[in-house]
Amino acid sequence: MSAPKFTTLGCRLNAYETEAMKELAGAAGVENAVVVNTCAVTAEAVRKAKKEIRKLRRENPDATLIVTGCAAQTEPETFVAMPEVSKVIGNTEKMQPETWNGMAPDLIGETEPVQVDDIMSVTETAGHLIDGFGTRSRAYVQVQNGCDHRCTFCIIPYGRGNSRSVPAGVVVEQIKRLVGKGYNEVVLTGVDLTSWGADLPAMPKLGDLVMRILKLVPDLPRLRISSIDSIEVDENLMQAIATEPRLMPHLHLSLQHGDDLILKRMKRRHLRDDAIKFSEDARKLRPDMTFGADIIAGFPTETEAHFENSLKLVADCALTWLHVFPYSPRQGTPAARMPAVNGKDIKARAARLRAVGDKAVVSHLSAQLGKTHHILMENPRMGRTEQFTEVMFDADQPESQIVTAKITGALDHQLTA
Length: 417
Hints:
Layout: E1 5-8, H1 12-28, E2 33-38, H2 43-59, E3 64-69, H3 70-74, H4 76-80, E4 87-89, H5 97-101, E5 114-115, E6 138-142, E7 144-145, H6 156-160, E8 164-165, H7 168-180, E9 185-189, H8 206-216, E10 222-225, H9 235-243, E11 250-256, H10 260-266, H11 272-285, E12 290-297, H12 304-316, E13 319-326, H13 343-368, E14 372-379, E15 382-384, E16 390-392, E17 402-406, E18 409-411, E19 414-416
Parallel strand pairs: 1-2, 2-3, 3-4, 4-5, 6-9, 9-10, 11-12, 12-13, 16-19
Antiparallel strand pairs: 7-8, 14-15, 14-17, 15-16, 18-19
């Protein structure tokens, strides 16, 4: 018998939860199992999950094949109907010890093939915290799960449930342990990070959490925030951007589009000028701030004029790192019923957005030449600057340490030092 194998598809949060499942499965004595932690963000993500499941079954013909994650939560019937699949478990169930206890070799045949409850009834985040998921240099800490918003293109709330937060005290204690283990950078993660605290007593904001971490964990060298919704950014987070050098000057913005009409049809809560104002305000407070952004190309009803506003947004917000998503309909979302854009146009527009994004990266890299950066080494030859830019060295550096170096060149989306 062998230890279970895990495959993760999708976001950092899924990767974090896979580490939790490894611990739970190990403690339960699960053997000869293959676990696929799926993503549901696009129809393509579900297609990839099915392809991966078929491949894993061919490679592991005698294993118990367990499917979990967002796609398993939103469409369990799709996966239980696949002859390759033994069990389907939901996003809540995958984080519960009793689920994995039921997967032990002597109990595997006694549990139901589908264990997926109503995710909307879940009111707490999983208590299972992982100390040290990530590289040896950077750890990821889940502080929030779920989403209360209902963007018309998005299936994720139905996979993750409503927003729920990890209390600040629990987060601070975990980060203290991580710093004690030698981690030099911690990244706060969640599905809708800027909604952190809305379900906690006194309804604190994400900025309150950031300030509390930096105050109570003075030995933490670097704190980083993952994707945020700029319209929800609070005063304390802006204060932290302005005054806290240990908060890294890199924010990934959930923008999705650059045209007001399309933003309204997406049911986003910001308009184009809101995004531009936020990026300008943040850069005034922190001139070295860089931005990444999610942008969807080819949303239903998008005209060439609408799309041009997304192209212009890259310059107007000074975006550097683009995540471009060609729109694909998700069954069960309002956008799937809207008039679709021609598939070839979607593909072409996504390519044009990526090309503009590539130029923005080149511009960012060239602006770093001759500058001195504090670089967190992920391996002996590669580290990342405060703005999350990759830097390659031609000689070994101390892994997981922060080294100070002068930038000497740029090549293929990377700096050299």
